[in-house]
């Protein structure tokens, strides 16, 4: 179909971009420091060093459908999904250094050759990806930026969604999850309004079995905050079956 995409360009170099995340470092254990030192050269990608288009096949060393996860946290869920889905590549983007190191260690421990980790602004990475290059895109528990004056920093908003969707292959899925009810409604309205995304469940989706329950999610449920999943598929003339 003819795209109506008006993908926003990167901001001019002289304009400070509005970040959708807090840069975070945090303390690291000796095990995490060791994993970062040893494994980053082989499994890591520094987004700030990208210069021009990015070829995911070169990063993984083989072609395969690609899943991009924005905000992988400590990486436990990413590692579990990658282990259960060896025929697809998983590229996790994170800014929390201990989380990056932990996922690298998990990938080594479980021999996950289909995992790579990127550090930096996920939107910059998405801009560098070829259009239609993603089989799935996961946005699990992004910062809700609850104050009204900070809503402009939210990841799921129309301009960003147009960019994210443009990188999905026809039939590819955009799967979001949040424990913030107001953000969940905002996400639903934004995703539903996109002309090239179709809601696979007609509203909030049941938690797919392939999305592991993380420690963060357990804390939310214990605190009485329900979790909302949204799964949308990029439409095409002949859409492939939705995959998470």
TrEMBL record:
Transmembrane segments: none
Keyword Cytoplasm: no
GO molecular function: tRNA (guanine(46)-N7)-methyltransferase activity
Enzyme class, broadest EC rank: transferase
E.C. number: 2.1.1.33
Pathway involvement of the protein, from the record: tRNA modification; N(7)-methylguanine-tRNA biosynthesis
GO cellular component: tRNA methyltransferase complex
Chemical reaction(s) catalysed: guanosine(46) in tRNA + S-adenosyl-L-methionine = N(7)-methylguanosine(46) in tRNA + S-adenosyl-L-homocysteine
One Pfam family, short name: Methyltransf_4
Region entry Disordered, spans: 1-26
UniProt-annotated binding residues for S-adenosyl-L-methionine: 69, 94, 121, 143
PROSITE patterns reported in the protein's UniProt record: SAM_MT_TRMB
Key words, A-Z: Methyltransferase, S-adenosyl-L-methionine, Transferase, tRNA processing
Binding-site positions, substrate: 147, 179, 214-217
NCBIfam families hit by this protein: tRNA (guanosine(46)-N7)-methyltransferase TrmB
UniProt similarity note: Belongs to the class I-like SAM-binding methyltransferase superfamily. TrmB family.
Function: Catalyzes the formation of N(7)-methylguanine at position 46 (m7G46) in tRNA.
HAMAP family, A to Z: tRNA_methyltr_TrmB
This protein's name: tRNA (guanine-N(7)-)-methyltransferase
Gene: trmB
